[in-house]
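Try this one yourself first.
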């Protein structure tokens, strides 16, 4: 099956495993760069187009540095993510803070760095002014509520805690303008892992309409619209890729009829895609250590949901390839499980796979976004290493695996 094709051969990965024991995530630099270039090419008509990569998807400075070289900025939601961006050499307005329930310290840090601050609530204008001061440039996050549907991962906008209502949005721009803010952005984020170009185009149309309305009612010329992230990837082998050229063509048409016609160009288009950029370029490599046959057949691997939470959290499908058996007939049905004391610690349920022997290497696909990043230490599980497969096929360790010492690092046994 095409989805089983890997960026490394069996002997290559076996050599890597000799140096870096499983489990680990490995990221394919070549494909990350190609994907970034593809996105930028699709939107080459949009002057000043930029993707602020959502750091939360894969918060590793080596990855951020690659994305910087491909022309991206970062979208951050916490102080450590701001710091990571800076460490990766990303500066000033190439960094955006899209945070909610934001602590004062985050605002202070973002302001000091000259990052673009994207406010999640109308009360945050005053909070920001009091705790950090107001910048020249402010962006607001819009929540259309019942006007839009959202999608199944992110839920309905009217149930979402994010953003300002339409009425608040207009008031917020008015207040900010009065307080001396000079430059403005407009943001929204309504979908997650969306595969339908129509839904993504509708979001752009909605924001373009707002840009026109804000200009007409308040006299503010919005500098950029931020379409958010949530552009989807095909996790399942039978799914097609999101057609970016189609999304881009739809957005271009809306830009022409709404923005250019109303003489509001240039209006920059930016987005905050995480998953789209790195998701398909990551693999969780793990070893089968046990086979257990009770009421169902289980393959126990040395990774667990602390390494990849998406199947347990969302029931998400992640394709599994048994290394060296890519084209073997899928004659067996297994649950592929980790060792956590939670019965949802399963990477695959009732999955048809070739016969697996303990010692086989399993490769779990599409872990380059919201994979390692979601790791946690419940059950005393330690987070795995992260490796980078360079275009010349050499491998760099870009984050070592956690050790028991790391787990104990926040404990003080002296007063015990
Ligand atoms: C999670 C998130 C993103 C990135 O989502 P992807 O699905 O990785 O593209 C972008 N912006 C905001 C505000 C987010 O919360």
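Now uncover the answer:
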């Amino acid at each position: 099956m095409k989805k089983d094709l890997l960026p490394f051969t069996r002997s290559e990965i076996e050599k890597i495993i000799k140096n870096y024991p499983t489990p680990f995530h490995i990221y394919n630099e070549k494909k990350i760069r190609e994907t970034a270039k593809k996105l930028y090419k699709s939107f080459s008509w949009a002057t000043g187009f930029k993707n602020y990569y959502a750091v939360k998807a894969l918060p590793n400075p080596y990855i951020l540095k690659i994305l910087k070289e491909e022309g991206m900025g970062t979208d951050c939601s916490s102080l450590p993510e701001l710091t990571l961006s800076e460490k990766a050499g990303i500066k000033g307005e190439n960094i955006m803070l899209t945070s909610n329930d934001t602590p004062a310290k985050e605002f202070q840090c973002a302001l000091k760095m000259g990052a673009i601050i994207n406010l999640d609530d109308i009360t945050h204008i005053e909070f920001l002014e009091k705790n950090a001061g107001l910048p020249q440039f402010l962006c607001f996050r819009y929540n259309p509520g019942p006007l839009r549907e959202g999608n199944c991962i992110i839920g309905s906008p009217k149930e979402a805690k994010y953003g300002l209502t339409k009425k608040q949005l207009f008031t917020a721009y008015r207040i900010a303008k009065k307080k001396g803010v000079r430059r403005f952005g407009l943001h929204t984020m309504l979908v997650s892992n969306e595969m339908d170009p129509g839904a993504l185009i509708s979001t752009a149309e909605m924001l373009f309409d707002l840009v026109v309305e804000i200009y007409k009612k308040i006299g503010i010329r919005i500098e950029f619209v931020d379409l958010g992230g949530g552009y989807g990837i095909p996790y399942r082998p039978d799914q097609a890729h999101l057609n970016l050229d189609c999304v881009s063509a739809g957005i271009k048409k809306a830009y022409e009829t709404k923005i250019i016609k109303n003489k509001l160009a240039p209006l920059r288009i930016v987005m905050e895609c995480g998953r789209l950029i790195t998701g398909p370029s990551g693999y969780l490599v793990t070893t089968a250590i046990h086979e257990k046959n009770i009421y169902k057949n289980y393959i126990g691997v040395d990774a667990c949901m602390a390494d990849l939470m998406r199947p347990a959290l969302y029931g998400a499908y992640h394709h599994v390839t048994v290394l060296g058996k890519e084209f073997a007939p899928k004659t067996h049905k297994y649950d592929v499980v980790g060792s956590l004391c939670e019965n949802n610690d399963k990477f695959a349920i009732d999955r048809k796979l070739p016969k697996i022997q303990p010692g086989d290497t399993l490769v779990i696909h599409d872990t380059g976004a919201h994979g390692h990043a979601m790791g946690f230490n419940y059950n005393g599980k330690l987070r795995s290493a992260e490796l980078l497969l360079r275009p010349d096929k050499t491998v760099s360790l870009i984050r070592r695996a956690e050790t028991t010492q790391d787990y104990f690092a926040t404990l003080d046994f002296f007063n015990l």
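Discussion: The pocket of pyridoxal-5'-phosphate is lined by residues 54, 56-57, 75, 98, 189, 192, 228-231, 272-276, 369 (CB under 6 Å). DSSP finds twelve helices and 17 strands in the chain.
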